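Hey,
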Amino acid sequence: MREIVIEKNEAGQRLDKFLAKYMNEAAKSFFYKMMRKKNITLNGKKCEGNEKLAEGDVVKLFLAEDTIEKFSSVQVQEVKKVDLDILYEDDEIILVNKPAGMLSQKAKETDESLVEYLIDYLLGSGKLTESGLRAFRPSVCNRLDRNTSGIVAAGKSLAGLQMLSGVFKDRSIHKYYKCLVSGEIRDVKTVDGWLLKDEKRNQVRILTEAEAKRFGGRDGDEEPKRIRTKYEPIATDGRFTLLRVTLLTGRSHQIRAHLASLGHPIVGDSKYGGVSKVNPSGRTVKYQLLHSYRLEFPKLAEPFAYLSGRGGVGGADAGIFCFGAERDRDQAAIKAGNSGQRYDKRLIDIKYLCKPLENIYIDDKEQLWEHGKPGAFVVPRWKI
């Protein structure tokens, strides 16, 4: 017999879901059979599997240890050591600045992704144990394309994962991006369209409403999805424009394809027609210059109220807790010309690095540099 006392990281889920994780090699029918025969009990009573677990609940498995072990396996993939750029961490959630070139999640079994690096970090720092992985595996809640950099949110606890999944699903968490595009843009605009994904090519098309009606679900394709994107120019030299982009809907490749359809592909985005060279130095950009630089959490109930009540972004946004690039003190310091001083690289707003854009170049290590100021400073590629 084995007795399991439900801990914080295991609470809040159905009993059958917990058992499926704890004995992940067993069929669901096995659990229901054992519950009917009272070989699995909850707090000393017969159970059905749909009970919601609370911290301190006691699950008893009246099974041979060999049977339990036969149905249990904890797999921890060995991965290369990666120094994660952690923007924020508490007991429930963690926010990581993902570099371009790293997968958010596995595409195939042999891949290494941010999820595996995150688990390796938590195990190595003692914040997670291999036995704890039986019932809960930390995971990311928003995915960025492999070659897009920026903030990825992950749940360290079940409660944290559920909260993050909820705010991303209902879109109450706001996501902001910066990108460098071809062409001159002078006006703030909100644009609409319809997105149709080609799964085989992993590419999307942007359609008009009339085209979307004609394409609707034919040949087994997905229905076109309505999209809305807002963009605001930060700086331009006539050849390129630095944009701040707000996703009003969140679809695969939305920013990349939507801007390309408007004649302004993202620099470095070869899939959607972006150029790879931006200045006379002839340096080639290996990844699209698109960065998820800011998250804004909505007001949240306990136990996550601490995420919505700290700080704000201007008076109208009081009560919104922001993670990202912009901080008034850093902007003020840069405006004042104190460029020789070292700053947290994540807190520098690149609009002060793009006046004029001719002063920007990208080196072999994908670093953005600025010329022409005393004690010129460097900002690693889009880590802003």
